[in-house]
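Page 42, continued from yesterday. The earlier attempt failed because a stray header line got pasted into the input along with the sequence. Redoing it now with the clean sequence only.
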Amino acid sequence: MPGDIGPGEALAPAWREYWMRGRSSAGFVIGLAVTALLVAVALVSLVWTPYQVDVMDIPVKLQAPSAAHWLGTDQFGRDVLSRLMAGAVNSIAVSLVAVGIGAGLGVPLGALAAARRGIIEEVVMRFNDFTFAFPALLSAVMITAILGPGAVNSIIAIGIFNIPVFARLTRGASLSLWQRDFVLAARVAGKGRTRITAEHILPNIASLLIVQMTIQFALAILAEAGLSYLGLGTQPPAPSWGKMLNEAQTLMYLAPQLAIFPGLAIMGTVLGLNLLGDGLRDLLDPRLRRLR
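This time it went through. Structure tokens are written below.
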């Protein structure tokens, strides 16, 4: 009918309101811009880079930034800008999969612990405590000793470390909702705990989980760079920001730009994602916005 409003039209004002509120936060705008730039650079590098990433050109090694090589060349004559662009793909891929593993396993575990309580909750939380005893770096060393170094092992190590983070967050947020009137009404209506979790609990904590994913994504990029720096992450010849820092440490006096540019890429990315996470938290949680 002419007077009916479709779902898309109903959601449009809400998204417009979020955008208007988000534009008033400098941190959110900066974080969104940095994240968009990172994704854009990674996508562009899939089809184009100024030079081939792995091609060595020894006669032009260790050149300073110039018109031919905007960020200079490394000790093998490889273009630094091209390697930074390709390294963004590895950082995003490793971090996305690792955070996906953490959220994909941690959220169901946390929701299960909150819904069932008792022995199930105790087992889940003790598993979380055990996992927290092995940080990502220590897990990577252990996994590398068994399987060998590589990006896949970094993903496994960072993903395992993220599981208890999402499990604890989901459990804590869910426990407060299980006492709310709308959940009690759903139980009176005959809905089971699994259905209540899927239809009422998870949708109400989705914004909290989205914010946490953004923050963990930044931490995963930092962890991937650290593991690659130690030689446990992405292996040559694939470019990695952490590996670029490792290779530059012996050339600090000859070519300091080899350490400066990857360091700035890591710092800017992590800072931008943290700003985006803080902005999303203020945007999606009206209570925090009122307090500020």
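Notes: The radius of gyration is 23 Å.
Reminder to self: strip header lines before submitting.
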